[in-house]
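Annex B. Sample input.
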Amino acid sequence: MVEKARILIIDDDEDIRTTLTTILKDEGYAVESVDTCQKALEKTKNKFYNVLLIDMKLPDMEGIDLIPKLPATVPKMRKIIVKGYPTLQNAIEAVNRGADAYIVKPFDVEKVLATIREQLKKQEEELRFSEEKVTEFIATRVKELEMPKL
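Annex B, continued. Sample output.
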């Protein structure tokens, strides 16, 4: 992507927000963070984020319950659930509820960065696919309009 990818960290642990913010900014990302789902909803209504890192346990609701409340975007915001004590059931539920990936605490920084890069690549592919579909639609519509009327 030409612009810096925008990442929103949603976690009630200030140390985690600070650490992730530092790491991600050092990697060249534009990073913001909030400590509740409500604040995340407010931010995502006004701004587009490429990636959301969402803690599973938040003070105002489960992070997984935030996912369906987020605005639909094209390309879609990539949602990564962060969980401290993972189970296979948690991971399955997260994916079924719309998460694009799942990261386990404590963090392996390289895995976090690799997951973010992978999600950004998928997002870029979705955007390219969407642009191709719009181009195809316009080309088809122009042909339809150029056809003589019977």
